[in-house]
């Protein structure tokens, strides 16, 4: 970019009134033409660079000067220099158009999934057993995308989605009361099981299924109110003709498992959450008469929310790489 001669003391353009359009918005098209004249070192060179006529360049610069109420160039025969204010405007224009270039580069990188951000929310079961695995695989494909995963119960995740604090969510229940606001897609079915320590009386009576009444009398270890796992289990027990008897209400799946391992009662939890403990013979899945409790894991996002390239890519990745139930 050629250097211009040092600026001389400012002069007043005869057609420029003192700041006639103070507070008006800057015309960036005119600013770009001025920027090109300054960086190219003249009107004719700028016209050739922009592939427009020299009079068109002159008119646009004059309009910019008129709108700003200043003179930007000292106009001398065969000699063009910036005024003091022109130097200032040119310095700002360099920053503006450098940021403009960075903006376009960033948008291109986002569209190409080289950069991006995901804010995900999930209820406890998908948040602990489904999304971490999916996110690990997704980041192998797109390492430049930053991701935040918020884990809370279903009720909280739905509220944060509605508050626009989360881009995409996965919850353990279809929030039908919000069907007008949320797009809902079935992801997979989750099986809820009842577990106990191997030395629990119900686990020792393995020759025949235990009844729902026996399980309830042994005392249930469940998640807090608002948990979709708990809600689904309580509804299923009611359908079997028994009322849930909760002896321990805990705030996480890990806490439910630990209490069951310690013999504190019968834990109610997703089968996905106890795979390791059952394999290690720390817990036993009880065979309960009539117990076939399943609930959907549902992918949700606000209907009126624009999904970025990264958000759309992750949603498609999830749907193409479902975890086997």
Descriptive overview:
- By secondary structure, the chain is α/β, with parallel strands linked by helices.
- It has 3 domains: 28-107, Orthogonal Bundle (Arc Repressor Mutant, subunit A); 116-189 and 296-320, Periplasmic binding protein-like II (D-Maltodextrin-Binding Protein, domain 2); 191-295, D-Maltodextrin-Binding Protein, domain 2.
- It is 43% helix and 21% strand.
- It has helices at 28-40, 43-50, 54-68, 84-111, 124-129, 131-141, 154-162, 201-204, 212-218, 228-239, 253-261, 275-279, 309-320; strands at 73-76, 79-82, 116-122, 145-151, 168-171, 182-196, 220-223, 246-250, 266-270, 284-285, 293-302.
- Strands 3, 4, 5, 6, 7, 8, 9, 10 and 11 form a 9-stranded mixed beta sheet that branches. It has a two-stranded antiparallel ribbon with strand order 1-2.
- Helix 1 packs across helix 2 (43-50) and helix 1 (28-40) packs across helix 3 (54-68).
- The longest helix is centred in the N-terminal third of the chain and has 28 residues, at 84-111.
- The two termini are 62 Å apart.
- The model is unreliable at 1-23 (pLDDT under 50).
């Amino acid at each position: 970019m050629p250097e211009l001669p040092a600026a001389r003391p400012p002069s007043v353009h005869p057609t420029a009134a003192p700041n006639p359009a103070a507070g008006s918005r800057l015309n960036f098209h005119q600013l770009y033409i001025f920027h090109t004249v300054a960086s190219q070192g003249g009107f004719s060179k700028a016209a050739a660079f922009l592939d427009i006529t020299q009079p068109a360049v002159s008119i646009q610069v004059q309009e910019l000067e008129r709108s700003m109420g200043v003179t930007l160039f000292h106009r001398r025969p065969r000699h063009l220099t910036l005024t003091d204010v022109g130097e200032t405007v040119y310095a700002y224009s360099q920053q503006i158009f450098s940021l403009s270039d960075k903006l376009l580069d960033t948008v291109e990188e986002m569209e190409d999934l080289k950069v991006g951000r995901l804010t995900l929310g999930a209820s406890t079961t998908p948040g602990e057993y489904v999304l971490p695995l999916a996110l690990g695989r997704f980041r192998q494909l797109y390492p430049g995308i930053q991701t935040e995963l918020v884990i809370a119960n279903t009720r909280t995740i739905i509220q944060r989605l509605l508050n626009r604090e989360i881009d995409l969510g996965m919850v353990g229940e279809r929030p039908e009361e919000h069907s007008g606001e949320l797009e809902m897609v079935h992801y997979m079915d989750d099986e809820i099981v009842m577990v106990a320590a191997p030395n629990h009386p119900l686990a020792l009576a393995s020759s025949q299924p235990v009844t729902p009444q026996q399980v309830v009398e042994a005392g249930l270890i469940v998640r807090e109110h608002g948990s979709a796992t708990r809600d689904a289990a309580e509804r299923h027990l009611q359908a079997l003709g028994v009322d849930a008897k909760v002896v321990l209400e805990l705030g996480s799946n890990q806490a439910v498992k630990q209490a069951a391992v310690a013999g504190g009662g019968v834990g109610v939890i997703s089968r996905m959450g106890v795979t390791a403990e059952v394999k290690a013979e720390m817990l036993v899945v009880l065979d309960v008469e009539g117990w076939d409790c399943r609930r959907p894991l549902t992918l949700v996002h606000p209907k009126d929310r624009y999904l970025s390239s990264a958000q759309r890519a992750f949603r498609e990745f999830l749907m193409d790489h479902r975890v086997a139930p």
